[in-house]
Specification:
With 321 residues, this protein is α+β, with helices and mostly antiparallel strands. The protein has 7 helices and 14 strands. 28% of the residues lie in helices and 26% in strands. Strands 1, 2, 3, 7 and 10 form a 5-stranded mixed beta sheet that branches. InterPro entries: Ig_E-set, IRK_C, K_chnl_inward-rec_Kir, K_chnl_inward-rec_Kir3.1, K_chnl_inward-rec_Kir_cyto, Kir_TM.
């Protein structure tokens, strides 16, 4: 079957783009900090460099302007004259004085004299503006670097889901695993069935979301994700797959979105990993191969068999049938 458009990719990226916002796009500027954090790295670095470059050039121009208006540029080498900023002869020297002040390097060669009230005011303004810009941009970069998005790449989901019997009940199952030794604290898993449907009133819902029970009532959705686990959804009368059989699976169109959330043990930040399964990725009458084995004093996980399945006898009928 030709691969159709997904709502959520296998890597967890949501295929949704917002368009025709009109005047609502101004809402992004009202929350500028979050907008910058959400940007891609190349845009963040570009804004970071441009902001500092423009701010440095503007402030250096203001120091040069004060020296120019006072006539300090022409009399800077006169030992009997008291300039606003000592040893500022041109724009490069004014720029170096600004950098020394902003970075608190303090070489001591250039300094503000006490006979320059406008320079003192500009110095105070520069200190306040520099602190605000540093706190905003450096805070933005720190938050972006500490985001736990990369942690989700070490959380694995099986490539396919399977339908087979477990404990005498027909179940939809998939596998999750954690590649790192650090644990996911308070890990919880949820599943959403996304399928188009039409209501009895004739309303068409193109992407209707329905919850799939993966143990919410029994606490099975709370995971101790030390070794790979098989997540099970029991197909019963309350399940959206109550009428699903091996024959109807070929003609169905749906998508199962899996959301795994937890707290990263090392950083204490919440991490979310996502994937999805379309009807083509649901294998009827299959079961996952075991990946755990007992070694000398520890359990070993063989991730080469993580996605492997094998066929088992399974009735081709739906639970309703």
């Amino acid at each position: 079957r030709r691969e159709r458009q997904r709502f959520v990719d296998k890597n967890g990226r949501c295929n949704v783009q917002h368009g025709n916002l009109g005047g609502e796009s101004s809402r992004y500027l009202s929350d500028l900090f979050t907008t910058l954090v959400d940007l891609k790295w190349r845009w963040n670095l570009l804004i970071f460099l441009l902001t500092y470059t423009v701010a440095w050039l503007v402030m250096a121009s203001m120091w040069w302007g004060i020296a120019y208006l006072r006539g300090d540029l022409h009399r800077a080498r006169d030992n009997t004259y008291s300039p606003c900023v000592a040893n500022v002869y041109n724009f490069p020297s004014a720029f170096l004085f600004f950098i020394e002040t902003e970075a608190t390097i303090g070489y001591g060669h250039r300094y503000i004299t006490e006979r320059c009230p406008e320079g003192i005011v500009l110095f105070l303004f520069q200190s306040l503006l520099g602190s605000i810009v540093d706190a905003f941009l450096i805070g933005c970069m720190f938050i972006k670097m500490s985001q736990p998005k990369k942690r989700a790449e070490t959380l694995m989901f099986s490539r396919a889901a399977v339908v087979s019997q477990r404990d005498g009940k027909l179940c939809l199952m998939f596998r999750v695993g954690n590649l790192r030794n650090s644990h996911m604290v308070s890990a919880q898993i949820r599943c959403k069935l996304i399928k188009s449907r039409q209501t009895p009133e004739g309303e068409f819902l193109p992407l209707d979301q329905c919850e799939l029970d993966v143990g919410f009532g029994t606490g099975a959705d709370q995971l101790f994700l030390v070794s790979p686990l098989t997540i099970c959804h029991e197909i019963n009368s309350k399940s959206p797959f109550f009428c699903l059989s091996q024959r109807t699976l070929r003609s169905e169109q749906f998508e199962i979105v899996v959301i795994l959330e937890g707290i990263v043990e090392t950083t204490g930040m919440t991490c979310q990993a996502r994937t999805s399964y379309t009807e083509d990725e649901v294998l009827w009458g299959h079961r996952f191969l075991p990946v755990m084995s007992l070694e000398d004093g520890f359990f070993r996980v063989d991730y080469s068999q993580f996605h492997a399945t094998f066929e088992v006898p399974t009735p081709p009928y739906s639970v309703k049938e």
